[in-house]
Specification:
The protein is α+β, with helices and mostly antiparallel strands and 309 residues long. The chain has 3 domains: 100 residues, GIY-YIG endonuclease, CATH 3.40.1440; 84 residues, no CATH class; 50 residues, no CATH class. The protein contains 14 helices and 8 strands. Strand 3 and strand 4 form a beta hairpin. Helix 5 packs parallel to helix 8. The protein is elongated, with a radius of gyration of 35 Å.
């Protein structure tokens, strides 16, 4: 740390200061690492408000100079001064606590809690109510949701575009029951080996592997990619005998697969869950909906029926 020399010729790199408000007769104690002439004032919130309105009423004195190795050391020295004057319980000080990192003054909190209006609300509750009202007036919540939706939509368009660009310039060839999607510059070699142009038979497993390999994550993405690449537009219909769900077809992890009401109920029974409280505790680790009463609201009766007691 940089060294400085005080008016007594002593080396220092930090100091404890003492501010006095000559108008209100109030005080503030703090610490600072640096030079007494570097322009630093103080960190207190309450004193800042008053100083901003009338700086000429304030004066500073240096209580002590120090040479420390880190910020923690000067903070500990500051704390000794704060405890000495018990600033937390002394109304003559702007400091809120006896801790050197600041905080809410206990009396200030008590005053706000006890400041009850005719509607039975304290100062904190009134502030929260005002904040909610302001957000509604500014429509900030709706704006944020719209922005989130547009961002997600734009991201999906970028992904689809990237997939399409990756597959661009490719072509289908087939040989007996097998089909492949190859680059055009590979075509001659395939034709020499008895492959033919076009997609003769496209199986469920081939489409599934194609979706997973190209990281297609939604039904709408599959359909837009399918149009471009001559793939089944509705694999859920074309492969109805093998079809289970879009999540499985696209290769999503098990925890992303949405269970039906009956599947979720069966899973809960399998885990020997006998109460709502126990369900909430085990739901996350077993990839179950956190609130089945909301997820399956159209089928929901009650917890007893769901857990089949």
């Amino acid at each position: 740390m940089k060294k400085y020399i005080n008016k007594n010729g002593e080396e220092y790199n930090s100091f404890i200061y003492f501010w006095k408000d000559n108008l209100l007769k109030k005080y503030y104690i703090g610490s600072h690492i640096g030079n007494t002439e570097d322009g630093y004032l103080f960190g207190g919130v309450d004193i800042k408000k008053e100083y901003k309105k009338r700086p000429d009423d304030f004066e500073r004195n240096i209580l002590s100079y120090h040479f420390v190795n880190n910020n923690e050391e000067i903070r500990l020295i500051e704390k000794e001064y704060l405890i000495k004057y018990d600033v937390e319980n002394n109304p003559d000080f702007y400091n809120r606590t006896n801790e050197s990192y600041g905080g809410y003054h206990k009396k200030s909190v008590e005053e706000r809690l006890n400041d009850i209006d005719k509607n039975g609300l304290n100062a904190f509750q009134r502030a929260a109510k005002k904040m909610v009202k302001t957000r509604k007036l500014k429509n900030s919540y709706k704006t944020a949701k719209l922005k989130e939706f547009e961002t997600k939509k734009e991201k999906m368009n970028q992904i689809n575009s990237k997939i399409s660009e990756t597959l661009k310039g490719s072509i289908w060839v087939h040989k007996e029951a097998e089909a492949k999607y190859i680059k055009k510059n590979e075509l001659d070699n395939y034709l020499k080996n008895s492959w033919k142009l076009g997609r003769k038979n496209c199986s469920y497993s081939f489409c599934h592997e194609f979706a997973v390999k190209n990281k297609i994550t939604s039904a709408s993405s599959w359909k837009s990619i399918a149009k471009i690449n001559d793939l089944p537009y509705n694999p859920n219909i074309i492969f109805k005998n093998e079809w289970q769900s879009w999540e499985i077809f696209l290769g999503k992890p098990k925890h992303q697969i949405k269970l039906s009401y009956n599947e979720c109920s069966a899973k809960a029974q399998e885990l020997n869950i006998f109460s709502a409280k126990e369900y909430f505790r085990k739901a996350k680790e077993n990839y179950l909906p956190s609130h089945p009463e909301r997820t399956y609201k159209n089928e929901w009766i009650n917890w007893e029926t769901f857990l089949r007691k």
